[in-house]
Amino acid sequence: MFKRIKNRILRYLLIAIYFIIILVCAIQLNFLWLFGYSPTKKDIVMPSVNISTELYTADSVLIGRYFDEDRNPIPFDSIPKSVTNALIATEDVRFYSHNGVDFFGLGSGIISTLKGDKRGASTITQQLAKNLYRTRYNKAGGLLTRLPVAGLVITKFKEWMTAYKLEQRYSKNQILEMYLNTVSFSNNAYGIETAAKRYFSKGANQLNQTEAAVLIGMLKGTTLYNPIRNPENAFVRKNTVLSQMYKGGFLKKEEYDNLVKEKIVLNTNSQDLNAGGDSYLRAAVAKWLEKWSEDNNYDIYTDGLKIYTTINSKLQKHAEEAVAKQMIELQQRLNNTWEGQEPWRDLSGKVIPNFLDNLVKKTPYYAFLSKKYANTPDSINYFLNKKKKIEVYNWKDGSKIEKDMSTMDSLKYYAMMLNAGMMSMDPYSGEIKAWVGGINHQYFKYDHVMQAKRQAGSTFKPFVYLAALESGMSPCDKITDKPVTIKIDKGDSVEIWEPKNADWNFSYREMSLRHAMARSINSVTVQLTDMVTPAKVVDAAHRCGITSKLNPVASVGLGPNDVSVFEMVNGYSTMMNHGERVTPLLVSKIEDHDGNVIATFQAERKQVVDKQDAWLMTYMLRGGMEEPGGTSQGLWEWDLFDKENEIGGKTGTSSEYVDGWYMGVTKDLVTGVWVGCDERSIHFKNSHSGEGSRTALPIFGVYMESVYKDKQLGYTQGKFPSPTVEITKSYKCETPRYSDPEPDQSDSTQVEEPADEGFIGPEEEGAEHPVERNHTEGADSGTSSEGSSSLEEVGSQN
Fold first, then answer.
1. What is the structure's pLDDT at 188?
2. Where is the composition biased (Low complexity) (predicted)?
């Protein structure tokens, strides 16, 4: 049809126009998948920008972020002129005079390139198109884009078309706003606001001219001109930006002369910035919201939400400091215990053969070496034992430290590391106020509040006493501390179990239930379990909030089953809350990016224990402090007992001092603490160093003392709440004072025979601990065999 046009120039012009129209349509439609994705009209109207979600405490302190790209968009009027002027002068001086594509700049760029001076010609709008729609990424490409020259032409053409669409839809200021909110500034900082905080610890609206020039200068090469990594290059680039601003008329000569002399002063210590880092709490909330996000079609990593937790920032700080302070002392104690010895021991106290060899085989580094040196095992051993600089966790101050270590050295170093879990909760509202999942989340990802499950030891005994109260008994009923023989029907045989007390002695005295629980007498606990039946004990624990599987065996009350700190705090809270179980609450509300509340959360409530029995249990828990020889009396070391303050609690230690526990209750809070090694074959040797009253209880003491001293928190000392119902059972039973001292009830129990050393059992699925950063990770920890099949033969420690 073009042959009808006689004028050759006109004919060629129309052919060109026709070809361009066909090409535009083909590219837009991705004809035969040749050209790849192009942004649609809907994409242009509603550009998709990933926004980081912010995590707050109940008192509105930012404690973390979730993001694929750490970005916090701000409006155009919050961006200072120094930033936009620097951007325009450096990247697109004719920004306000073109419609998305600067053909004059393109022509001059080609001429400069031919002369040997490579200069880009992309406008700010084109760069925005590239940032928003990933026009140069593989997923945006078609079959033709895989060809070198054709790919470049098609990609550039799509950028031109997208830039033109953006210019038709948005004003110049809106384009600048979108650009500065999407561009990357390295170090996982996206957008000018996040970059300002990342490098200068201030908002974008507070940036001065030099700081603005530094950040805009980075856009040419975020690594090459990074002021942290390459300060000299950044200084030179800063001055180049200032020079362009001077040439563009944005700076006067005097201003320019002064600014080029200014040094770059970074400030990368912003708490707001560091709050974006990972933590146990941040990971716990992410896990908490998995189902909510799925059900409500939200992505916490891209949707810019504001998540408000129930955590009190000051309580959290006191909890973290208490754990950090005490764990330094405890780690030193454990290291001293095994100095010059191999700590991994079996039930008989013998060193477990090939312990480290078996451990290293679970690591990715070993898998890598095995694949590389499949036919030369000596090479594997050489590299596993070769000394090198390794960055490890320094337990003395929580910092990073570089040491000359082999992989095997680092395995031993981390296997010997004690860890901890701590949770504090308001028993009436269900709000979790503090959550410490371990000693350092960077090195130990495994959360010891929710994920870790360990033998509860004697902290489980209150559920036995609750079952006894529910059967009709009272705190003043008496049982004799005496040897107990339990016959266990194994079908084809009968086994005999004779549990022992912590000190291997029996007083042969009658004692009230309150006194027996306060002193954690195993013989009484076993007798009560036999009287009410193990099934009733399990039922009481499950009703209170223990969700783990519990084997209803004779020894169940001595705590051989594995449970979490989270469950135990919930269980004790039910007693404090008049027998009403409340589901622990970690998140209170969620807002969208515009501040609209899109979800609120409340604790589920259910009355599961008679109010009288629940109140009597809180009275019995106070016995640990009030009864002679109570196992909680180590708390007298701290300033906790002004104004007739009442504290209840229960210590616990599993067999061989593997796990140390303390469950503490006050009129306002229920707090659980666990201490132990992830490798269960490594532990303290004796009760003096390893029982719960000497490992976990001090953490509770330090924590509560700091809470009471912090007057701004509003947690005061005082008595427990009065009963809300009539108490018909006798409970004010005075314990006799004996002329001869009662046997020492240390916070430990051995049930078979005294043993100074430890054991290892089958592996616990899902446990984690780091071994060597950047080389190995994910070694599974062991679990006590006493928590599995033969629970009748297991005892707890008080």
1. 78
2. 779-798
